[in-house]
Design goal:
This protein is α/β, with parallel strands linked by helices. The protein has a single domain, classed as 3-Layer(aba) Sandwich (Rossmann fold). Helix content is 42%, strand content 16%. It is built from 8 helices and 6 strands; from the N terminus they run βαβαββαβαβαααα. Helix 1 crosses helix 6 and helix 7 crosses helix 8. The chain is globular.
């Protein structure tokens, strides 16, 4: 069975414009295919109306729920973002904020719905900041329940990597450090996706999980009170 991979491309550009982040994400998927069959679909988040907020559905045409369902249907999330002013893109930050709803979203056993899914981060930019951006994204993804394998990041930061050129597509591809990071991440994403197929059912619910599953509305109400405090 192919490994199901969902790519969330948080470029500021819509899909009618080229995206260096997309090129890097596709390179990662190519390297993943060295280890197994991969069923990949990429979502350019800028194409959708993703409203600000932390609820699953912010109403009035909010399209985050359909994106979120596609992420939950995958085994691997490939999270892509450019660097802007040393930080993840504003779209990446919005997506992370919308993932906050998964902190209080449970399966039938009371475990977080994201459990069992693996994530890696692809980062492009023409300035330093790869480590910082990865730290922000990795912490958030792990908090909501994703498994991050070792070396689950690849980044290209233009001139600071001794790879002169305006962007990843024209200058970063073929860079030794990018290939090293990307190939290691790709292998580990595939290995951990297979591992989680076996291990997810072994994540036994704790008492707090059982209580949440027994009364999900009460658990959600507690979460909303935390947001309001």
């Amino acid at each position: 069975m192919p490994v199901k991979v969902c790519g969330l491309n948080c470029s500021l550009k819509t899909s009618d414009h080229p995206s260096n982040t997309s090129v890097m994400m596709q390179d990662v998927v190519t390297w993943m295919r060295d280890h197994d069959e991969v069923d990949y679909n990429e979502i350019r988040v800028a194409d959708f109306n993703v409203k600000p907020g932390v609820e699953w559905d912010e109403g009035d045409g909010d399209e985050w729920p359909q994106i979120g369902e596609r992420v939950l249907a995958a085994e691997v999330l490939l999270f892509g973002t450019p660097i802007w002013i040393g930080h993840p893109s504003s779209i990446a930050q919005r997506v992370i904020e919308r993932m906050d709803a998964w902190l209080f979203s449970y399966d039938g056993l009371g475990r977080k719905k994201v459990y069992g899914r693996v994530a890696g981060v692809a980062i492009t930019g023409n300035e330093d900041g790869g480590h910082h951006v990865y730290a922000e994204c990795a912490q958030a993804l792990n908090d909501v329940g994703f498994v991050l394998p070792p070396e689950s990041r690849v980044y290209w930061t233009g001139w600071t990597d001794q790879s002169p050129g305006p962007n990843y597509a024209s200058a970063g591809r073929g860079h030794k450090s990018v290939q090293y990071m990307g190939q290691h991440m790709a292998r580990n994403l595939v290995v951990f996706a297979h591992a989680m197929r076996e291990l997810t059912d072994k994540i036994m619910p704790l008492q707090s999980d059982i209580e949440a599953a027994a009364d999900p509305e009460a658990a959600l109400a507690r979460a909303k009170r935390l947001h309001e405090s």
